[in-house]
Amino acid sequence: MDRTFHPRRSRRVVPLVALAAASALLVAGCSSSSGGKKAEEKNSGVAAGKATTPRMTVALVTHQAPGDTFWDIVRKGAEAAAAKDNIKLVYSSDPNAGTQANLVQNAIDQKVDGIAITLAKPDAMKDVVGKATQAGIPVVGLNSGVSDWKKLGLLEFFGQDESVAGEAFGKKLNEVGAKNAVCVIQEQGNIGLTQRCDGVKKTFGGKTQILYVNGTDMPSVKSTITAKLKQDSSIDYVATLGAPYALTAVQSVGDAGSKAKVATFDLNKDLTNAIQKGDIQFAVDQQPYLQGYLAIDSLWLEKNNGNYSGGGEQPVLTGPAFVDKSNVDTVAAFAAKGTR
């Protein structure tokens, strides 16, 4: 799709969201007469905070692995946006890139009005994204693929720069005095996970080791980390790339009799509880609820208003932000609701 005539916009998303919210409030409570209210509803496509525009069908296709609770938060955000925008949301996922591409093809065959995808393995998604574009179906990206979304022709992207997040994590390790960290990757070939560990290695002044585990087999994850800690007693930090793996790493530390501490990327309710108890030192939050919400909402905005977050040229960054003892109590309240 030619985006030449769409002006550049700031990568900050707040004004766009605020505009939509303000429109809803004006329609719901600020009309001076029923006739004015109806006119405003007709013009805005929103009534009482919900879209009155024609029903859309949008497919959300991710690389979620079974049991990975991170994606429950993404999906909850997407469902909230769909409910507001009068969208039928069709969710599907598979960690296998080839299967994920087939799921996108299924969405194309169903002639959906929009597709939101993750690009954990962008090369495997290139052809099917091209088919969607040829079919006139707008495609946006979220979570994984900040380095590749424009090359593949996606309209917008919502997520964090994983390299930047990794570099911030490495600097945090320096601040806490770590000397020897092992970065645990739960899925080989996932470009976002690789970028995280590469970023850690770039800025961390100590030793960085990479440990691959099978993220779909948690007992195996536990035993692999335990064996690594027993083999190298000088490891003082275990850096995991997802909340479930961090919680498992805590068990591994105990089983190995290690003094290593655990820090991680990503959050869930149990992870925030672990930070409160001191079992986890800190976490990098990329706000997955926001990623899901903005990706689906953006397709409604593009279709009905012609809006492009970031002007179609810049990603909308939802992270990174650190959660530790200093702010976890506030974050935990939202994590309990499933929105952080």
Automatic annotation (TrEMBL):
Residues 1-28 form the signal peptide. The keyword Signal applies. The keyword Transmembrane does not apply. It is found in: Cell envelope. Keywords: Signal. Residues 59-300 form the Periplasmic binding protein domain. Residues 30-50 are annotated as: Disordered. InterPro entries: Bact_Solute-Bind_Prot2 (IPR050555), Peripla_BP_I (IPR028082), SBP_2_dom (IPR025997). This is Sugar ABC transporter substrate-binding protein. It comes from Streptomyces glomeratus.
